[in-house]
């Protein structure tokens, strides 16, 4: 791979989708042989730290001595490298092309875009809750890893923010078992530790969001981001220190992050608007749905405008290059007629439709090492 090539996800080998299959195999849940070997255990916790990129962790290892001490080869997360896509890959053990959540916003039905983070309509002054119109269990019908574990007799617990209990994304990606709402790092640690205690096989999924938030607002690697990384290191060390003797903790992330300094405004630039029917995705990974018969003209206009700041391919080219992995039924229509992955420090923003997102310095979603690579760090009881 040259420096000008995208970093393609390692689906089926070492991507985020391989984590839960490996953990379930370690717990003795029947299934195919995992691509990532883990030792047999009675209990396991998977802690997802939103925004924990492997490149960022390596650069700032002095702020996370416990995590850095665990070592391990990084994973790729899949495309786009953003939260709802990655969490669904983690939760289902499937690449985006199979589970069908292919963007932060994407065409899920007709000419409407689904905001897959909030499970609401996209681009409206007052977004509508789409959990009844587009039930998450239908948009993503594959069984989740948590459902598989529970069906095999494993006691399953998810530990995360109260707002995510019963959310559309939770129902799509992480349904199964019990949900325990937490407020801060202290009860997140307590919730994970308690979920692993007691007899029988146990599985806990824990989620922490604040590193991603600070990376978006202040920039990845900023002082605020580094101080939050220090707290996460203490969180992971606290959980690991209290693991039962027959348990493991696996810490990973859903994407890395880059600093965006070069912005192309798709709400203002005529060259990025003509012939475009819908524009989904986020600033580092865009789905461009074009008007009938306009594909060639739109493709040429986006290439001329963005130049070397993006990889721009057709849907068929993206599928053939395995950006999304193998496609399941009806997923192809969810992918843009053009798929745009930004390079360097560039982003395609929307100052009218996405005014807050457009101004954030930290972004992610593309096929660079900074965004694609996340750690897989495994700790066992000492």
From TrEMBL:
It comes from Pseudonocardia yuanmonensis. SUPFAM superfamilies: Alkaline phosphatase-like. This is Alkaline phosphatase family protein. It comes from the Bacteria. PANTHER family: BIS(5'-ADENOSYL)-TRIPHOSPHATASE, ECTONUCLEOTIDE PYROPHOSPHATASE/PHOSPHODIESTERASE. InterPro entries: Alkaline_phosphatase_core_sf, Phosphodiest/P_Trfase.
């Amino acid at each position: 791979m040259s420096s000008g090539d995208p970093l393609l996800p390692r689906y089926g080998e070492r991507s985020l989708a391989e984590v839960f299959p490996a953990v379930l195999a370690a717990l003795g849940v029947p299934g195919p042989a995992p691509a990532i070997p883990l030792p047999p255990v009675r209990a396991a916790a998977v802690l997802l730290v939103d925004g924990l990129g492997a490149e960022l962790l390596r650069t700032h290892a002095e702020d996370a001595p416990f995590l850095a001490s665990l070592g391990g080869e990084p994973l790729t997360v899949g495309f786009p490298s953003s939260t709802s896509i990655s969490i669904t890959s983690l939760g289902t053990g499937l690449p985006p092309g199979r589970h069908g959540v292919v963007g932060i916003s994407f065409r899920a039905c007709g000419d409407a875009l689904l905001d897959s983070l909030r499970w609401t309509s996209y681009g409206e002054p007052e977004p509508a809750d789409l959990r009844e119109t587009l039930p998450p269990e239908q948009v993503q019908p594959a069984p989740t890893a948590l459902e598989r574990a529970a069906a095999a007799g494993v006691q399953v617990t998810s530990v995360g923010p109260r707002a995510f209990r019963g959310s559309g994304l939770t129902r799509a990606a992480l349904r199964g078992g019990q949900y325990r709402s937490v407020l801060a790092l202290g009860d997140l640690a307590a919730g994970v530790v308690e979920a692993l205690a007691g007899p029988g096989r146990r599985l806990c999924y824990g989620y922490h969001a604040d590193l991603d938030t600070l990376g978006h607002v202040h920039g990845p690697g900023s002082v605020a981001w580094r101080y939050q990384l220090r707290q996460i290191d203490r969180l992971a060390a606290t959980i690991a220190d209290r693991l039962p003797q027959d348990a493991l903790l696996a810490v990973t992330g859903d994407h890395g992050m880059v600093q965006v300094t070069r912005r192309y405004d798709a709400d203002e630039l005529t060259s990025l608007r003509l012939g475009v029917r819908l524009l989904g995705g986020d600033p580092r990974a865009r789905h461009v749905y074009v008007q009938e018969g306009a594909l060639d003209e739109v493709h040429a206009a986006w290439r001329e405008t963005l130049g070397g700041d993006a990889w721009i391919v057709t849907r068929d080219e993206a599928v053939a290059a395995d950006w999304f992995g193998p496609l399941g039924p009806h997923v192809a229509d969810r992918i843009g007629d053009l798929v745009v992955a930004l390079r360097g420090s560039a982003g395609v923003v929307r100052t009218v439709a996405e005014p807050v997102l457009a101004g954030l310095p930290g972004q992610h979603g593309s096929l660079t090492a900074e965004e694609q690579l996340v750690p897989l760090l495994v700790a066992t009881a000492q």
